[in-house]
Amino acid sequence: MVLLRANTGCFTEGVLEMKKVSFFGKDIPVIYEMDCVVVGGGTGGVAAALSALENNIKTVIVEKTISLGGTQTNSLVSPMMPTNVPRQYINRLITERLQQERIKTDDGTTSCNWFNVEALSYVMEQLIVERGGEILYDANYIDCLKENNKITHIIVNTCEGLGAIHGRTFIDATADALLSRTAGVKTNSGNNEGHNQQVTFRFEMGGIDIATLRKYLLSKNDTYCKIKDSDFFEIAMVQGKGHTLEPLFQKAFNNGDLQQEDLRYFQGFTQPGKPNVMSFNCPHIPNILQTTNPIARSKAVVKGREMIRRLVNFLVNYVPGFQHAFLLREASQLGIRESWRIVGQYVLTEEDYIKRARFTDGIARGDWYIDIHSVKNEEIPKVQFSPGEYYEIPYRSLITFEVDNLIVAGRHISSTFLMQASLRIQPTIRDIGQAAGLACALSVKENIPLNQLDGVALRRQLQLMEEL
Length: 468
Ligand SMILES: Cc1cc2nc3c(=O)[nH]c(=O)nc-3n(C[C@H](O)[C@H](O)[C@H](O)COP(=O)(O)OP(=O)(O)OC[C@H]3O[C@@H](n4cnc5c(N)ncnc54)[C@H](O)[C@@H]3O)c2cc1C
Hints:
The structure is a single chain. The protein is α+β, with helices and mostly antiparallel strands. The protein is built from eleven helices and 20 strands. The strands form five sheets. Strands 1, 2, 3, 4, 5, 6, 7, 8 and 20 form a nine-stranded mixed β-sheet that branches. A five-stranded antiparallel β-sheet has the order 12-13-14-11-15, with helices on one face. A two-stranded antiparallel ribbon has the order 9-17. Helix 1 packs parallel to helix 10. Bound molecules: flavin-adenine dinucleotide. The site of flavin-adenine dinucleotide (FAD) has 37 residues, from helix 1, strand 6, strand 16 and helix 10.
């Protein structure tokens, strides 16, 4: 890593030389010069950075918040969905480290991969730092500089103002395809009408007497929670689906304590390592049709806070086990399931899902169903995978025609709206990240642009190749 110092006193760690780039007529100090620049330290970005570091290239993560994990941590999204696809190297690395932190990651029943958000962001940070990786927190990516078809620098906004980062390879792990869009890559968004998947504003409650809650539900012959390990518990209520909690929701609605919009989707999980705490996968925010609109996102936050207050009061006043419970935290980031998707060298489609597609450059695998939380009823292929069945994700869905040294790692790879709803789950995104990080290492070492790299050779090098 080369850390440069500007004579203004900016970025003052280390004194080598001052480099600057011009950005809209302003001289901007160059903060880092790296082999691999990962924009976005979320689910895909962290996996990609770890993979790049494991392959010995100088890597920095640029993250706009001050914790790694993205949707997993800042949107409070847990657990990792169950998958029968064998867990790949980076996935295993993170899971084993969580276990060393005495976080129980396996419930013994569902093949979900569990964590709590504080433990996960800490573990990710430690894994990056131990491998010599740099993390630039509180740094908002805003634009990039290009020469011909290559990105030369990204521009970030920090506490000291604008800074530039030079890289040989760049990973767009922003989930919103922000680096790709600003670099001139074509993108799509939403379904045929341009509507995105539903937005959720998650929250956690503490002080829950989970034993009492469990006892109450079992006394009503509730069968929703299939997990046998008593350290784990989950609850749900979707109006009209016959859930045990529905009469309580209905009573609160009749009393004016809940509104119709609160009854649409309710789900909560315990958190390993956090006794008496549950994390809630709700509320779904009504009437937000486009997650690509910053004003709509802001309105979703305001609306979500109101809905969270109603749900918390309802739980405390109506549901056994919650009498002494309290709102522990709200997510610091909205739960966005889908926004922009790049149009890359291959667009993965629901046809590929249906036929369990295989590709010579397949670099990750997915087996989750097409999981749409949509504002309208979509026509979803009714195809259930048996355990062991999967589709592959080709390397070409991560790279673009427009930019030579750019690769995408996250929910925004090149796919259709329906297909994205399957590949967006965390274990798959981590595997995509692993492939992206290795691709950067090969690109740097062999001096081949990312979008001309041999995906078949990359597949061969990936550990998952052992099982493919
Ligand atoms: C409500 C909800 C429930 C879900 N439930 C589950 C579930 O139970 N299990 C499961 O496996 N999956 C679930 N998913 C899906 C899964 O969590 C996400 O699809 C996945 O985590 C996305 O990973 P990502 O790397 O694409 O994005 P993220 O993890 O969100 O990472 C993007 C990162 O980029 C950073 N960033 C963005 N813009 C900038 C910028 N300008 N500058 C710097 N940094 C930036 C963000 O801060 C963030 O850290 C759920 C998703 C949602 C929204």
